[in-house]
Design a protein that fits this description.
The protein is an alpha/beta fold. The protein is 41% helix and 17% strand. The protein has two domains: 6-184 and 387-401, Rossmann fold (3-Layer(aba) Sandwich), CATH 3.40.50.2000; 200-385, Rossmann fold, CATH 3.40.50.2000.
């Protein structure tokens, strides 16, 4: 079908980005806008009018501040903003939603305006049961919103082959409606030569010593607690830098604080940066790291691994979800199987998983030439396979295939 303009829907859009889905939408919108007009509708106060790219932020519903259980606010707020996004006049030929926060907005807009609906799955609610801690019974509303929108979408994009398999296993969707289009990265922005030197003194990092880096939110999904528990077994040649903020719940924030305190009692060179840093600062930390670790227990794709690889950094990551489609073992890094208990996201033996993470990290710590070889191979892989231009072209081709 002819596609003259598209609408992208997302909870996150700059400057309000805290996760991989928001990064994905930011760069996809920019790349698509080089091919056709794009309108972004998102949560917040954003407003942009640029050639081929308009952005409109949507504020929350005032009623949410009155007599609402705090656990229910995220899902009810998403539903309320979805109504606002869908009801506004729309002149796009297709609507494309990202994450459950805007899945319902996409479905409603598609039905109201009579246009095709595409949905990208960055994660799946049935595979994130720990969110009950955060949302209470609101989790069941978010799962219903996701399921309803998924089952009615004209096309579903999975960010990895593993995610596609999860979708087909969990939802009654025809296989020919589910397509794999990976996440991407801007290799010019994430480049060691372009990275600025971090303010090491500000963070307490010794610039003369190599360091292991973690970047991510404090959530069960990211497995940060497993890495913290591995710290005692990680080579003393490495400093450990945890760039970890935005805890999902007060409970996991407390757990993280206690775990870091216990780890520091055995080795004081653990630097915890609890703020979500500006992108340029994070790129600087990537570019100067010796090793990057992604200990996730659930990761549909794992864009952070691409970010590290683009900066010539070898990766030690969990062998879960879409990560094996990004990190090539013994070529760009090492993969560690967390050996999850079936039907859960808990390692059968958490202490053993932590030790095996440490062993893989220590192998790289002891071998600078291997780190260099893995780092260069990772950079080469990013340049060949994960540019946003190529991903935008594949996405536009999918748009055009609908309605035929």
């Amino acid at each position: 079908m002819p596609v003259r303009k598209i609408a992208l829907l997302s909870k996150e859009y700059p400057p309000h980005v805290y996760g991989g889905a928001g990064v994905h939408v930011e760069y996809l919108a920019r790349a698509l806008a080089r091919l056709l007009p794009v309108e972004v509708r998102c949560f917040g106060d954003q407003h942009l009018d640029a050639p081929n790219l308009t952005v409109r932020g949507y504020a929350g519903w005032d009623e949410m501040a009155r007599n609402t259980d705090p656990r229910f606010i995220p899902t009810l707020d998403a539903f309320a903003r979805s109504l606002a996004i869908a009801k506004d006049r729309l002149d796009a030929d297709l609507v494309h939603a990202h994450t459950w926060y805007t899945d319902m907005a996409g479905l409603l807009a598609a039905r109201l305006w009579g246009i095709p609906y595409v949905l990208t799955v960055h994660s799946l609610e049935p595979l994130r049961p720990w969110k009950v801690e955060q949302l209470g019974n609101g989790y069941h509303l978010s799962a219903w919103m996701e399921r309803t929108a998924l089952e009615q979408a004209d096309a579903v994009i999975a960010v990895s082959a593993e995610t596609r398999a999860d979708i087909l296993r969990l939802f009654p969707i025809a296989p020919d409606r589910v397509h794999v289009i990976h996440n991407g990265i801007d290799p010019d922005e994430y480049h060691p030569a372009a990275a600025r030197r971090p303010d090491f003194a500000r963070y307490g990092i010794d610039p003369t010593r190599p360091y292991l880096l973690f970047v991510g939110r404090i959530t069960r999904q990211k497995g940060i607690i497993h890495l913290v528990r591995a710290c005692a077994d990680i080579s003393p040649d490495l400093q450990i830098v945890l760039c970890a903020g935005a805890p999902d719940t007060p409970e996991i924030a407390t757990e993280m604080r206690l775990a870091v305190a216990a780890a520091r009692a055995r080795r004081p060179d653990i630097i915890w940066i609890a703020d979500m840093l500006p992108r340029a600062e994070t790129i600087g930390l990537y570019a100067h790291a010796a090793i990057f670790c992604c200990p996730s227990v659930y990761e549909p794709f794992g864009i952070i691994n691409l970010e590290a690889m683009a900066c010539n950094v070898p990766v030690v990551a969990s062998a879960v979800g879409g990560i094996p489609e990004v990190v090539i073992p013994n070529e760009t890094g090492f993969l560690v199987d967390p050996d999850l208990t079936p039907g859960t996201f808990d390692p059968r033996d958490p202490a053993d998983f932590a030790r095996r993470l440490a062993t893989a990290i220590n192998t790289l710590a002891a071998n600078p030439s291997l780190r260099q070889r893995f780092g260069q191979a990772g950079r080469d892989r990013v340049e060949r396979n994960f540019s946003w231009h190529a991903i935008a072209e594949r996405t536009l081709a999918l748009y055009k295939s609908l309605g035929k």
